């Protein structure tokens, strides 16, 4: 994708805010990016995660979706890992870009973490914890949310999600404009 865009590794590193060495290691399959790093790299290419993972998915006019119809935004990230611990799974409802609203079904295995480097993007997001518990940090505020708890914040504030529990955490979230 970088080569098709006609940019160098250094240019992509600058555009995405990711170290040049990390770009090189990912391209030579010596490293797999975290979800946060992949999102930054794709942002440097002006590509969403949905477009990256399912580039040929036709636009759908569907209003209702079965579980198998959700867009998997993360499985390919983990296809080479033997240990599922620390895995994050994002499944998107429909065409987020067409509606300017991204609705996600999120699953965080024990130990899963969006990364030590806090996420920041121009959006607003909110969600409800459906099962398990998840630590959510937004700016200088941090809370462990359990089933039934929820959050809502301006995504330009640095934020992070971590499953510090011993069982899977499940969250249903929304973000506008779409981030992933």
From TrEMBL:
Residues 1-52 form the HTH cro/C1-type domain. It holds the Pfam family Cupin_2. InterPro entries: Cro/C1-type_HTH, Cupin_2, Lambda_DNA-bd_dom_sf, RmlC-like_jellyroll, RmlC_Cupin_sf, TransReg_Diox_bact_type. Residues 1-20 are annotated as: Disordered. The keyword ATP-binding does not apply. Keywords: DNA-binding. Residues 1-11 have a biased composition (Polar residues). This is Cupin domain-containing protein.
């Amino acid at each position: 994708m970088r080569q098709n865009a006609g940019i160098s590794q250094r240019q992509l590193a600058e555009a995405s805010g990711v170290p040049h060495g990390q770009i090189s290691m990912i391209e030579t399959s010596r490293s797999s990016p975290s979800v946060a790093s992949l999102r930054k790299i794709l942002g440097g290419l002006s590509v969403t995660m949905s477009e990256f993972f399912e580039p040929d998915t036709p636009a759908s006019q569907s209003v209702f979706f079965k579980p198998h119809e959700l867009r998997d935004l993360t499985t390919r990230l983990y296809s080479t890992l033997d240990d599922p611990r620390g895995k994050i799974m994002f499944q998107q409802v429909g065409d987020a870009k067409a509606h300017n609203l991204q609705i996600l079904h999120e699953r965080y295995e024990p130990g899963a973490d969006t990364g030590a480097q806090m996420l920041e993007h121009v959006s607003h997001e909110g969600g409800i914890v459906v099962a398990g518990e998840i630590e959510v940090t937004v700016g200088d505020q941090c809370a462990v949310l359990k089933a039934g708890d929820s959050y809502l914040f301006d995504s330009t504030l640095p934020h992070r999600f971590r499953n510090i529990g011993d069982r899977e955490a499940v969250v249903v979230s929304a973000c506008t404009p779409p981030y992933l």
